[in-house]
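Final report, Chapter 2: Outcomes

The project's central promise was a pipeline that accepts a single protein chain and returns its three-dimensional structure in a standardized token representation, suitable for archiving and comparison. That pipeline is now operational. To close this chapter, we reproduce one record exactly as it appears in the project archive, with the input sequence first and the structure output second.
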Amino acid sequence: MRAALTRMSRGESLLHRAARGSAWTIIGVFGSQGIRLVSNLILTRLLFPEVFGVMALVMVMIQGLNNFSDVGITPAVLQSKRGDDPAFLDTAFTLQAIRGVALWLACCALAWPAAQFYEVPELALYLPVAGFTSVIWGLQTTRIEEANRHLRLGQLTRMEMLCQLVTTAMTVALAMVMQSAWALVIALVLGAVVKVIAADRMLPGHRNRFRWDAAAAREMIGFGKWIFPSTIVGFGLAQGDKAILGKYLSLAGLGLYNIAFFLASFALQMGMTVIWRVMIPIYRESPPGLSHENFLRVRRIRMALTAGFLGALAVMAALGPWLVEVLYDDRYATAGGMVRLIACATIPQIILLSYDQSALAAGDSRRFFALTVIRAVLFLGLFWLGVHHWGLAGGLAGQALGAILAYPATVWLARRHGAWDPLHDVLAVAAGLAIAAAFVRPSQVVGLF
């Protein structure tokens, strides 16, 4: 056992680096969610549910703008043969900075229309300030991408947790003094500053400067021409539920949904973070379509990850309502009934998490875009249809059904790169059905109509 742990902690094989990277990422997600939970508990006692509803709308707008302008700089660095070239990294940094300024200007332009659409006048003031984070993030060092590319995730995780602790302390202090949504908006900007400075000081690697390499720019833009529309469509997958619910729920109701989603989506968020950081390097170094040995290596990694994600989901589905009852006051009691349904609605997404990364690792951003479109159309259409006719429970059922109906397209993409693993899918579906059967009750569903 000791020898195995030593090999995992020091070995440089793909499996050892993947295991270390996954472990550090999971530690980071647990730490991050723990810090967020403590922050959430403190803030819910200092602020009203309406504040969290307003911030949900602010984040929908900012995330939407980010997605609507993403040219795939991060995955381009992760998969490119020039991903360690200083000229390539500096060109990525320059593109990122230009994009950040453009994003902020767009956020300022959309502030008033968004305030009118959602009938929340405060958005006209909050969005330009919160949107300035785009300018700050544009100055983020590419050392983060370098750490991800080589699975050096221990340093990255420690840096991110330190930044989150500092940002949380600032947020709580501002909330105590201001007791309004301004506290969260200002903390958002300060948190971006903290992370940019910390990444520059704490991570090893190339020190960026503004530089333009035409060949590097052409490669990134060529790769990103399909990532750009993919992230626009991906906005629907990431924020579509809140964007739709913003028209059907009060600000207080949207705030309650946000609290429940924070708890219920823990397994999905952990899975997405681990997959994003680990699987592109794994697929790049060990393409499953190249040999049966590579396929089996990827299968072992994917099986272990999916088992861990579904296990975390089962724990949250079991404890979620109790956690709401114990941790939050009576104003948030309704969120308890939402937690299990939201968690179980994410099961199909968790099972299929890693397949699309095989396309990005191979530079196949066009088929990645096609799959993202199919997923988003099914998710948005069925979620809206469910909410419109049957309330939140109907929307969550539509979300799960959308992911299931997208399975043939996912298989199509995965088979192109030799990544489809039907044994993994069958075992994961059986486990997912068992979890849903154990925790979904008709009385909970009726309560959310």
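Archive annotation: DSSP finds 21 helices and no strands in the chain.
This record, like all others produced under the grant, will remain available to the consortium after the project formally closes.
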